[in-house]
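Subject: complex prediction, re-run

Hi both,

The earlier run crashed halfway through, so I resubmitted it with identical inputs.
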Amino acid sequence: MTSEVLTGCHECHLTLRLPALDERQEALCPRCGAAVHRRKVNSIARTWAYLLGAAVFYIPANLFPVMTVISLGKAQSDTILSGVIYLLLHDMWPLALVVFAASVVVPLAKLVALIYLVVSVQIGSRSRPADRTRIYRITEAVGRWSMVDIYVVTILVALVNLGNLATIEAGLGAVFFGAVVVLTILAADSFDPRLIWDRAELNDV
Amino acid sequence: MTGELVLCHDCDLPNRLGEVPEGGAARCPRCNGLLYRKVPDSIDRTIAFATGGLVLFVVANAFPFLSMEMRGNVTETTLATGVRTLFRDERPLVGSLVLLTTILAPFLHLVLTLYVLLPLKLGTTAPASRELFRLLHQVQNWSMMEVFLIGILVSLTKLADMASIIPGIALWSFALLIPVVAAATASLDTHLVWSRIGRQA
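This time it finished cleanly. Structure:
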């Protein structure tokens, strides 16, 4: 009876008193029926897998065009960066800033932040756990904004569809970029911020 | 509610929930994570916002949100035509992602909210409420209409000097839908819903 541990259901947040579960064991939440683990299962390994996938796909996502404009027989391809430069050259710098932030800064910052968090947990860092938790919360919240470029391609492809006069096609870059967005969202989802505190707590004992 | 023991979702610190005032929130003293937010008339408000959202969602999808006129040719686009064009252009992965984040997830979000909450309002519980309320939590993560609106804005500016753009009725429903869905999310007291579902299960 001494080894009972307070465990929170990840789905419905019910607080349970359970015998200490090891990493692989699970219980079923009596209230919502979800599998309960003390920490997300294989959190570090899964986060790394998604992060590596995202980092690899990030390269073709930027090299291949996200869309090609075919107008009166001329084809012009745009990558994510050349799209930003186009906006800048046409005096649309507020918009250029929005797209640059959503498509370049957010995915890169997310990758860097999550790698930092995973490594800090793996080396057993005890420094500034509250700040690291805040970084995690921001990372989780901003990821979705990278979808802007995917939506722009979708809208342009549907709207500019006039045969020989003007047609826009979605490029391979859009596929890889979409994959980067999904993989970084899954990476953030796999990381368990409570791991940050497991180490920090050892300090108090 | 008083004195209930909850673990912080972000750092696992056990906290005793004190009395939370209407509209107030309890935060974890260690990591500032949100423990609980009390919304006045949560179930009534959420049902109202979700119902309104569903009406706007239907309008946003049934009508074109942008039309473009270029040298006498007019093209219109609804949410679904964008997805269909991507599939036709052999980009099924991108098409599926757009379908999920702008149509399926927002629709499921609204429908599941009503499915779980309406019976609660009437004092019963709908079948499979536990599973569907958990699904709702997953679905919210993938509903990205507010990002889509920024996408529309960027597209408009890009096309502005190439063709004339006519905003459609769906665009206005869409712009309204976003704050309404955000309000449906913010007014939902998951803590309260779980304790009601749990009691009747």
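The CA atoms of residues 48 and 99 of chain A lie 27 Å apart.

- K.
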